[in-house]
Design goal:
With 68 residues, this protein is an all-alpha fold. The chain has a domain at 24-67. The chain is built from three helices and no strands. It has helices at residues 24-35, 39-50, 54-67. Helix 1 (24-35) runs antiparallel to helix 2 (39-50) and helix 2 (39-50) crosses helix 3 (54-67). It is globular and about 35 Å long. 18% of the residues are buried.
Amino acid sequence: MPRPKSQPPPYPADPATGAIRLPSDIVHELFHLVKDGNAAEAVRRVRALTGAGLRQARDYVETLTRRR
């Protein structure tokens, strides 16, 4: 379920650096989404959780696959 626009994201990206920091259990879930071929869903989740833009979320998901 999408969150209302007036409500801030649960894990906002750092506005100064654009850094995305998520709890390890969420990172683990995102990694498995990508591993199972659901990268688009992982990007959607990152955007919903952080309020990040498409490019920033996609870059974050790509770094997950390279990191592990």
